[in-house]
C-alpha cells in the first residue's frame, strides 16, 4: 500500500538511525583483516608460481639425469667389451624390502630386527640403503622378507600410488597428494616436491635417511598371481630372500 | 518504564517506575519498582525448592501390614518336582498348594511393603526458600518469561501489573471480571476456562477429576477474605495470595518461573519492607537481604566485543587441513599435475616421440613391402663395428682353450 512513499520513508528512517558502535567497530576490524588476507593471498600466489617454476625445472633436469646415468652404464659396458676389459656392474645402493610372512611364532630377535626395519605388518615394504649393516640385518631376517634392487619405474610408481608421509605434530600418516606436505617435512634438505623425493630415494642421496624415514612403510596388496612358496628361499624356487632385479616384477604385482 | 528523579540520587540508585492501573485502564500515577524484581533469576534454585515444597502436602499411603502374610504356608522341600517356594496348606480350594509369601507369588506379599513412616515431607532451609521466592518474583516481572510460561498477556499494558487499592474493596465477581477485562487479563482467564478437561488417569476417581491451566495470581495486602477474595475467588484460573504469605508453589507453578501476577498498590509497596533493597536489609524477614547476582554485567555479547577483551584476543586459528580421499596420480592426470608440474610436458614429449617413431616405422614397412628399403649406411657401419668387437672378444676368450 503506497509503495513508493513507504519505501521513501524506509530509506529516510534507515539514513537517520545511528549505526551502533559495536557494528562500526566490527566493520573496521573486518576490513583490516580482509585487507591483510588479500595481501597475504597475493604474496602466496607469487611465491607459489616461483616454486612451481623451480619444481618444473628440477623435474626436467632429473629426466635428463636418469637417462644420462643409464646411457653412461651402457657406454661403459660397450667400452669394456671393446677394449677387452671387464665391466664390473655397480653394486646396488638401494634395496626394497617386503615382509612376506605374518607375525605369529617369531623369534624375538628376528621380530626386533623387523621392527627396526619398520616392517611390522605382512606385505609392508620399505626402501633401504645397502651397506654392510643393513645387509647383515637382512641376512638375519631372510626367511621373512623378499628384497631386491628396485628400478626407477618401480620407485616412481610406489611413491606416486602408495606414497604416504609422516606429517604434523602427531606424526600422522598423510597421503602425498600435495607437494606442500613434502616441503614442510623435508624442505630443509632441499626436497620440495615429489620428484625431488623420488630422486633422493632412487639415487640414495645425502638426505636419504630423512627422506626415507619421512615415507611411511608402503602397504602393498597381496601379489596378484600369488607367491611361489613363501617358506623357502628364492634360489630354491620359493620367495624369501634376495631376488635382485626380479623384485620389480613382484612389486608390480603387489602395487 | 521511566526512571525516578535522579537529582538527589546517584545514577545506580535510579529505579524504574511502574504505571498504576485502575478500573479505567492506566492512570498517570507511577510507583517505583521494588528491588526484589531485580534479584537474580535462578531457575535451578526455584526448581529445587519447588520440588521439595511440593512434597509437603502429601498424604501417607501404605499397604496393610498383614497383606499377603495371612497364610500358614510351608515349602514342600525338594524331591517333588516343584519349586521350593512356600505353598499354602490344606486342600479343597484353588489356593491350596499355591505359592505364597513371595513378591513373585500370586496373592503374596509385595516386595518391601510401603510404610507410613516413609519420609513424605522435605525440609528446606529458610534462606533457600526466601531466595527462591525472590527469584520467582523477579521472573514475574519479565514479560518474556511470563509469556514463555504460557500466560496470554498480549493485551496487558505493562508487566508487572499494579492496580490501585480500590480493588481490595471489591466484593462482586462481575465487577472483578470487568476489571480483568479492562486490564487485558481476561485473555489469560479465558485460556483457563477453555482448558478444563478430564484428567487422564486414576486421579479422576481420586477427587482430582478435572485439570485446568493456571491464570493470573492476584496479590493483595488489605481486603482479605471478606472483600477481594470474595470477588475473585470464583473466577476460573484466578488465584489470590496475600503479599505477607507469598507461596512459591503459586509464584512458580511446576517449578517453572514467570507466573502472571496482578498486584494491588499496597501489596506492591509492601515488597520493599518484606524483602529489603540492595541498600537495606529486610524489616520483616530477620537476617535476610536480597541475593546478589554473580555478574554485574551479564551481557556476554558486549563483554566479548569490548575493546579490553578484543585487544588481547589471539587471531582465529586456521582449521586443521584434513586429507581427502587420495587420488592415484598414475591414473588421475589432474592429481599428477598437482604433484609434478612437468608431467604435462613429459607426456606431450612422449606422445610426440611415439608419433614420430610410428611414422618412421610405417615408412620403412612401406618401403620394405615395395622392395625399395635400403638399410642406412650409418646403421650398417655400426653393426659392422660391433660385430668386429664381438669377434675380437670371442677370439681372446678362447685363446689357450680347446674350443675350435
What are the salient characteristics of this protein?
heterodimer, A: 255 residues, alpha+beta, five-stranded mixed β-sheet, two-stranded antiparallel ribbon, 9 helices, 7 strands, 54% helix, elongated, B: 404 residues, alpha/beta, six-stranded mixed β-sheet, two-stranded antiparallel sheet, 13 helices
Structural summary, described in words:
By secondary structure, chain A is an alpha+beta fold. Chain A contains 9 helices and 7 strands, in the order H-H-E-H-E-H-E-H-E-E-H-H-H-E-E-H. Chain A has helices spanning 3-16, 21-83, 108-116, 132-140, 152-162, 179-186, 194-202, 208-214, 247-254, and strands spanning 94-99, 124-129, 145-148, 164-167, 172-175, 218-219, 241-242. In chain A, strands 6-2-1-3-7 form a 5-stranded mixed β-sheet. In chain A, strands 4-5 form a two-stranded antiparallel sheet. In chain A, strand 4 and strand 5 form a beta hairpin. The longest helix of chain A has 63 residues, at 21-83. Chain A is elongated and about 100 Å long. Chain B has 404 residues and is α/β, with parallel strands linked by helices. Helix content of chain B is 35%, strand content 9%. Residues 6-12 of chain B have low confidence and may be disordered. Chain B contains 13 helices and 10 strands. In chain B, strand 8 (217-220), helix 6 (228-232) and strand 9 (239-242) form a beta-alpha-beta unit. The N and C termini of chain B lie far apart (127 Å). The interface between A and B is medium-sized, with 25 and 27 residues.
Amino acid at each position: 500500500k503506497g509503495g513508493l512513499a513507504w519505501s521513501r520513508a524506509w530509506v529516510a528512517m534507515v539514513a537517520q538511525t545511528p549505526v551502533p558502535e559495536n557494528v562500526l567497530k566490527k566493520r573496521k576490524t573486518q576490513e583490516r583483516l580482509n585487507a591483510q588476507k588479500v595481501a597475504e593471498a597475493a604474496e602466496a600466489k607469487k611465491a607459489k608460481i616461483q616454486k612451481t617454476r623451480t619444481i618444473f625445472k628440477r623435474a626436467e633436469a632429473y629426466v635428463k639425469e636418469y637417462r644420462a646415468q643409464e646411457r653412461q652404464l651402457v657406454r661403459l659396458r660397450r667400452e669394456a667389451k671393446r677394449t677387452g676389459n671387464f665391466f664390473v656392474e655397480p653394486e646396488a645402493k638401494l634395496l626394497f624390502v617386503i615382509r612376506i610372512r605374518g607375525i605369529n611364532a617369531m623369534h624375538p630377535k628376528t621380530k626386533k630386527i623387523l621392527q627396526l626395519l619398520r616392517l611390522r605388518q605382512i606385505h609392508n615394504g620399505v626402501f633401504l640403503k645397502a651397506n654392510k649393516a643393513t645387509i647383515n640385518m637382512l641376512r638375519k631376517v631372510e626367511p621373512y622378507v623378499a628384497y631386491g634392487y628396485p628400478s626407477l619405474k618401480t620407485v616412481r610408481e610406489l611413491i606416486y600410488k602408495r606414497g604416504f608421509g609422516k606429517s604434523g605434530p602427531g606424526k600422522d600418516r598423510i597421503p602425498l597428494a600435495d607437494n606442500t606436505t613434502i616441503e614442510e617435512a623435508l624442505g630443509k634438505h632441499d626436497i620440495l616436491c615429489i620428484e625431488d623425493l623420488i630422486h633422493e630415494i632412487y639415487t640414495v642421496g645425502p638426505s636419504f635417511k630423512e627422506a626415507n624415514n619421512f615415507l611411511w612403510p608402503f602397504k602393498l596388496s597381496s601379489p596378484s598371481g600369488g607367491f611361489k612358496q613363501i617358506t623357502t628361499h628364492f634360489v630354491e624356487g620359493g620367495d624369501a630372500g634376495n631376488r635382485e632385479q626380479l623384485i620389480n616384477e613382484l612389486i608390480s604385482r603387489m602395487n | 518504564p521511566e526512571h525516578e528523579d535522579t537529582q538527589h540520587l546517584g545514577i545506580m540508585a535510579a529505579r524504574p517506575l511502574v504505571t498504576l492501573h485502575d478500573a479505567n485502564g492506566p492512570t498517570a500515577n507511577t510507583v517505583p519498582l521494588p528491588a526484589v524484581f531485580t534479584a537474580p533469576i535462578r531457575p535451578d534454585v526455584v526448581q529445587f525448592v519447588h520440588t521439595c515444597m511440593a512434597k509437603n502436602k502429601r498424604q501417607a499411603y501404605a499397604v496393610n501390614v498383614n497383606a499377603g502374610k495371612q497364610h500358614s504356608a510351608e515349602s514342600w522341600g525338594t524331591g517333588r518336582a516343584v519349586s521350593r517356594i512356600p505353598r499354602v496348606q490344606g486342600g479343597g480350594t484353588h489356593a491350596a498348594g499355591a505359592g505364597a509369601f513371595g513378591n513373585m507369588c500370586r496373592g503374596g506379599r509385595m516386595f518391601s511393603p510401603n510404610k507410613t513412616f516413609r519420609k513424605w515431607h522435605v525440609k528446606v532451609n529458610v534462606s533457600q526458600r526466601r531466595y527462591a521466592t525472590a527469584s520467582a518474583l523477579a521472573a514475574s516481572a519479565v514479560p518474556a518469561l511470563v509469556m514463555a510460561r504460557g500466560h496470554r498477556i498480549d493485551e496487558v499494558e505493562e508487566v508487572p501489573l499494579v492496580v490501585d487499592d480500590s480493588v481490595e474493596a471489591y466484593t462482586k465477581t462481575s465487577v472483578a471480571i470487568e476489571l480483568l477485562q479492562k486490564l487485558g487479563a481476561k485473555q489469560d482467564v479465558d485460556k483457563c476456562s477453555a482448558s478444563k478437561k478430564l484428567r487422564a488417569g486414576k486421579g479422576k476417581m481420586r477427587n482430582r477429576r478435572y485439570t485446568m491451566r493456571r491464570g493470573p495470581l492476584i496479590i493483595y495486602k488489605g481486603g482479605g477474605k471478606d472483600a477481594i477474595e470474595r470477588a475473585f475467588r470464583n473466577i476460573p484460573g484466578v488465584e489470590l495470595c496475600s503479599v505477607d504469605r507469598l507461596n512459591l508453589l503459586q509464584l512458580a507453578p511446576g517449578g517453572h518461573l514467570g507466573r502472571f501476577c496482578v498486584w494491588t498498590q499496597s501489596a506492591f509497596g509492601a515488597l520493599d519492607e518484606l524483602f529489603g533493597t540492595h541498600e537495606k536489609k529486610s524489616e520483616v524477614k530477620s537476617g535476610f537481604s536480597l541475593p546478589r547476582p554473580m555478574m554485574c554485567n551479564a551481557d556476554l555479547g558486549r563483554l566479548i566485543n569490548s575493546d579490553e577483551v578484543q585487544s588481547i584476543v589471539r587471531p582465529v586459528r586456521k582449521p586443521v587441513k584434513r586429507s581427502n580421499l587420495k587420488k592415484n596420480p598414475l591414473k588421475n592426470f589432474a592429481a599428477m599435475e598437482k604433484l609434478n608440474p612437468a608431467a604435462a610436458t613429459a607426456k606431450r614429449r612422449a606422445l610426440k616421440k611415439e608419433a614420430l617413431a610410428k611414422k618412421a616405422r610405417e615408412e620403412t614397412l612401406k618401403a620394405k613391402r615395395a622392395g625399395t628399403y635400403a638399410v642406412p649406411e650409418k646403421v650398417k657401419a655400426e653393426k659392422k663395428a660391433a660385430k668386429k668387437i664381438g669377434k675380437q672378444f670371442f677370439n681372446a676368450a678362447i685363446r689357450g682353450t680347446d674350443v675350435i
